[in-house]
Amino acid sequence: MQQYRYTITGASRTVEPASMIRRHASQASSHVLASSSSPMDAENASSYDPKRDARFLQALDEQNVMLNDQQLQAVRHGEGPLLTIAGAGSGKTTTLACRAAYLIAVRRVPARQLLLVTFSRKAADEMKLRLAGLPGISTTTAKSIEARTFHSFCLQLLRRRGNQSAVLGDPGQQRMTVKRLLREAGTTLDYEPETLLALLSSYKCRLLTASDMPESSTAEREMKRVLIRYEQWKAESRAIDFDDVLLLAHRMLSEDEQLLATLQERFRYVMVDEFQDTNTVQYEIVRLIAGKQRNLMVVGDDDQTIYSFNGASADAILSFDKLYPDARVVTLSVNYRSSAAIVGLGNAIIRGNRNRRPKTLTVPAPREEAASHSSADGEVAAAAASDSPLSHAAAPSAALAGIGAEMPAASDDASLGTIGKPMFARPATSEEEASLITASVRKLVESGQYRYGDIAVLYRSAGSGRATIENLLQAGIPVEEHGEGYSFYESSLIRPVMAHLRISLHHRDKQAIEEMLPTLYVNRDAGMKWINEQESERAKKWPLIHLTNFPRLQQFQKDQVLERLRLIKAIASIRPATAIRRIRDAFFDKFAETNRGGTPHKELMKELLDELETSAGRFDTVEAFLAFADEMAKRQADARDKQKQERYTASAAPETEPGSVQMMTIHKSKGLEFPVVFVVGATENIMPHRSATQPQQPKQATTPEKAAREKEEAIEEERRLLYVAVTRARERLYVSSPAFYHGQKTDISRFLAEAGGAPHPANRSKSAAGGR
Ligand SMILES: Nc1ncnc2c1ncn2[C@@H]1O[C@H](COP(=O)(O)OP(=O)(O)OP(=O)(O)O)[C@@H](O)[C@H]1O
């Protein structure tokens, strides 16, 4: 297969993070004495002991963590509010963990008085592991620290106060309920349950209820009515959703003075990681608990707010020091994670956002060169001045200079490039991109420098990751998917389409028949009961035909069944991609749109269905495509089982195991880091996603100005996503941008083009027109 070579871009200077960190460690003891962060706070605290302080920092240095002055200020911070704001990889989580350890080991604060709130369960587990490795913290001590997510902390609170309501953890069940309520309400307009649930959630995240929703139009009144009914249904069923967990805990804390006082006494130090993604109700909960002692430490980065659809807003972090005027603000600006060129690329990308607190990350200066930190942009500029063959990477903003040009087809051999330098590829399609990544992963592991587990592949959405996951699986490379727990072909949107293909070959496939019934607006249980009863009396070659006698159906529905059967018979012998297109055109796109569609889900759905068509395009027959999809589903299930098994039995040191390539959406990669990162699909319509560039109907916009603002906000969030993605890489970063996506010629992501100095085509044509 023909492959494109990864082309080296960015700075020519290579900084190898591991050695960089070691160099710092060798300066270890000096900072204890020389740091400009004198332990003033520590001295003021009665429990401060300079010997313990020195011992702690010395031990930390021995672990290759030499805190810089700013980090040290935060770690030694005694009492009162503290905001630590910084860019990616600058040690926010490290600082938070070190401060927790410092409080325990140096200040002798009992471990149980600490409450650490993290964003995900994975982050909470990692925090405990991290703490257990820090100086003066035994495993038992680490275990006794409350490191939790907001939800787990709040749910524990509810359970302890006797609330035994069932937690609705299955979004499918919630959607079905809303769908039923919509039907019962006899609404005049079409609404998709996801949109309604997201709308409700956005209110609850802001401490509002369904009753607070506006009623100025028919749509608003209908939505409000259905959502109030949904809330009633939950109350009657003694069930609560994730938002309720937070809201109920908040109410409990606001109303029960004694409970609040107990918690305030218990948790004397409250620390929140990833604060930029905290929503109002979460923030208020933290403020209540930290209300008395005011020992609230928050760390975050406004450039990494990527969950605004969950009600997160960078406002909280940006206005923290206004709410707490006595807050100490510590800004970290040295990135310890990534090479200079990777940091430079991150800086160049995020600079395109207007709504942010300006900050530029630097990298630690090599010991032999300077005592100060060197600018990552400076690294790129230095490359320009040198005789390096890459000196065309001239201006600081040109971290990926030349990226606007399409890369020529090169060789059969995927070049791995040089450590530290971002690499860029412009394969023709997602399939070629996937082959290129597989070849590179193989080479990286064969080189002996990396294990599979050191490598991550990041994608914008499940659809844009499909090709790479399959290609790696086909090559027998172990992968670990951090997804929904099923394959692409098994997702709820894709299953009914696959069911039609299956029935075309296996007319009596009962499971497939059941899966496609909702597309005929036939209740699954009732429909299958009827079909099975009829079959036992008189079996048919096409059991679906029994629906034409189903008394519950009206004549037009019976006609639809016949029409559907004609379609199913016709697709058996055509190419699978054509078959899927016919299914979509005949009814499925419309069905999906009215039953599941709407902004932004409509765009995501279209993307998934287009992806299905693209995948099927590789096969000549429906049979071959189905066999492939089943094989992929099996391999993915096997991989999941294996990982589950390993998690239970894991005892060997992880570094000795090859591990699995980590596959996840960019959203899931937040807070994580990997020696090697592949960012796939850096292409217009994927990044930024089409839902941001071509919103069908602005979320809540009422005026053109508001619509424009919402669009800009959506695009800025997409840019933050790419920033998060590239800054996950420590040593090697590969960014690729397929030239054709779902059969359409597609430009390189505007974010990369802008970072590399090339204007985005939309702006290019604008300026050309203006010049005429
Ligand atoms: N002072 C230091 N000396 C050496 N290594 C450090 C130091 N501070 C942080 N690191 C390392 O830098 C990397 C990034 O740190 P960390 O994950 O805490 O950053 P972060 O700001 O929370 O990142 P992000 O916001 O991007 O998730 C980690 O590998 C960490 O061990």
From TrEMBL:
Ranges for domain UvrD-like helicase ATP-binding: 65-339
Gene Ontology CC terms, in alphabetical order: cytosol; DNA helicase complex
Any one Gene Ontology BP term: recombinational repair
PROSITE patterns: UVRD_HELICASE_ATP_BIND, UVRD_HELICASE_CTER
Stored Gene3D superfamilies: 1.10.10.160, P-loop containing nucleotide triphosphate hydrolases, PCRA, domain 4
Region described as Disordered: spans on this chain: 26-48, 357-383, 637-661, 688-714, 752-772
Keyword Cytoplasm among UniProt keywords: no
Pfam families reported for this sequence: UvrD-helicase, UvrD_C
Low complexity compositional bias, start-end: 26-38, 373-383, 692-705
EC number: 5.6.2.4
Residue stretches of biased makeup (Basic and acidic residues): 637-647
Catalytic activity as recorded in UniProt: Couples ATP hydrolysis with the unwinding of duplex DNA by translocating in the 3'-5' direction; ATP + H2O = ADP + phosphate + H(+)
Keyword DNA-binding: yes
One GO molecular-function entry: 3'-5' DNA helicase activity
Keywords linked to the UniProt accession: ATP-binding, DNA-binding, Helicase, Hydrolase, Isomerase, Nucleotide-binding
Domain annotation UvrD-like helicase C-terminal: ranges: 340-671
Binding positions for ATP per the UniProt entry: 86-93
InterPro entries found in the cross-reference section: DExx_box_DNA_helicase_dom_sf, DNA_helicase_UvrD-like_C, DNA_helicase_UvrD/REP, P-loop_NTPase, UvrD-like_ATP-bd
UniProt record similarity statement: Belongs to the helicase family. UvrD subfamily.
Protein name stated in the entry: DNA 3'-5' helicase
